[in-house]
Amino acid sequence: MAYEMISFEKDGPIGVLTLNSPKKLNAINATLIREVNAALDAAERDDDVRVVLLTGAGRAFCVGYDISALPEGDQDLGALQRELASDLDFIMRFWRFPKPTVAAVHGYALAAGCELAVACDITVADEKTFFGEPELRFGAGIVAMILPWITGPKQAKELILTGNDRISAKRALEINLINQVAPEGEHLKVAKRLALQMAAIDPLPMRLQKLAINRTYEIMGLNEALKTASDLDVLIEGIETPDSKTFAEISRKEGLKAALEWRDSRFATGDEN
Q1: Across 50-129, where does the E strand assignment appear?
Q2: Alpha-carbon torsion, ordered 35, 165, 129, 178, to 10 deg
Q3: Most buried of 125, 232, 245, 261, CB within 10 angstroms?
Q4: Alpha-carbon separation of residue 2 from 38, 56, 124, 266, 270 (angstroms)
């Protein structure tokens, strides 16, 4: 199948899924979601694919949703709720995918891009990678509130409520956001090595063990908590705050880069950890 914004190829037992919109730092839009889901459908049916490895082309893994593609003005709350529910399902598909998923991350993994990396079973980051959830800094909400389940509430609140988007790979490892830090330029090599170890295991026990781990979190209320957070995100996205209004106005008049500079100028320097 020919893709516009991703590529998918088999490397032995590994299905390598690459977000391939480097000019926009692999920002997520409807086309990318549709193509990723199609690739995952194919990988799920293909018995030769035992592990899916997710990575990004260019300078970044993924910087979240494409802000320039967001609709202007008020949105119908029903339509917004359906859209955010679909966005949540897209991110969590990597968590629920029956085969192991590995993220090989570099550059930036921000907002939904951070959530996408974390939703994979294993996350390997280049040592120069920055993570973050900056949504609140421009009046938006979190699509997939998975961080508290990964890092614990204290760390999740710090990341989300400060909007810090300069969390280093070293700090991400310390707070259990990722599994391993790879030397610069080696993240794909390290991720593939882990993927091959998992691919050598019989698929059925692998599938059942992943299901058992996921089921543990479901029993603790993961799915209900994600649904509640998504419903609250509808409220956040459905209202126009002073911050979101100013950000949108600057973005329309002067471009996204100027809007991001305005956003960052309001916060003290020294975000990097």
Answers
A1: 51-56, 101-105, 108-110, 122-126
A2: -80
A3: 125
A4: 11, 17, 28, 43, 43
The string of pLDDT tens digits covering residues 202-213 is 999 999 999 999
pTM of the model: 0.92
Token reading at 112: 């939904």
Strand positions, DSSP E, the chain: 6-11, 14-19, 51-56, 101-105, 108-110, 122-126, 130-132, 167-168, 180-182
pLDDT digits (tens, 9 = 90+) for 115-156: 999 999 999 999 999 999 999 988 889 999 999 999 999 999
**Can you give the length of the chain in residues?**
273
Q: Is the pLDDT of residue 76 over 70?
A: yes
Which token pair is 57?
């082309």
Catalytic positions:
135
Asked whether the beta carbons of 238 and 77 are under 8 A apart, the reply is yes
